[in-house]
Amino acid sequence: MTRKFFALAILLAAAGLHGCWYKVAATSPYLPVQSFVAPEPGGHAPLVVVLPGAADSLADLRDSGIVDAVQKGMPHADVLLVGATPRDYKAGRFAQRLHDEVIQAARDRGYGEIYLAGASLGGMGAVLYERHFPGELTGLILLAPFMGDDKVFKEIDDAGGLRAWNPGREPDTIDGDNYPRELWRAVKDWGEHRERARHVWLACGADDRLLPVAKTIARVLPKGHFLQPAGGHLWTVWNPAATELVQRIARGAKPAAAEEEGDDSE
What we know:
Layout: H1 3-14, E1 33-36, E2 47-51, H2 58-63, H3 66-73, E3 78-82, H4 86-90, H5 94-108, E4 114-119, H6 121-132, E5 139-143, H7 150-159, H8 179-192, H9 194-197, E6 200-203, H10 211-218, E7 226-227, H11 235-250
Parallel strand pairs: 2-3, 2-4, 4-5, 5-6, 6-7
Antiparallel strand pairs: 1-3
């Protein structure tokens, strides 16, 4: 992606999304990972892959408590943390690298049930992956996802909501200029293909400035797939929410009928 995207990530942090500023390192030839085996293994364990916020190194992500939070809600799950920096996104091939180096590698090791979770910038990374590889994963767990600057979000609001919004022609490539539109195109697609929406889970704090964005996403999701806990843009908010969401997934919560799904009126 272009320099504009990296600048946006910096501005996002400067705007007060505490926990989302990063000690930038050079892009690695391989995405660093750290794995954690299920505390209650049995049979074919699901895998939850976690992407960091812009503030989080791999060590920070490990220390955030997200591994315990996921395995508290889903004790039979293995967790794989991925170290990803703004520069990895800026390079423009993050989704493909994540697929080749992490997701496909996990499938080669025998994982059939794979969830991708991400907080803030990591939530953006999860939506970006879904945009490139729609329907490939078992599910997405989005924690206050950053969806780019407010320009496209205002377009959607002015149009009367996602259903009425026209994202325009699909570009040949996704870059630092068009990535917010393509993130929202993926979300609009969930509203038009309910089977995909059933695999997306979302949480955002009631005091988080990204709450309006999250609520717009939530309108295309089934009821029970969105949590709005107290608090702001912090791991202390996201971790309990992640526990609750994976518990719902583990229980096999299924919004059965269309009338039980979210209202996508804006």
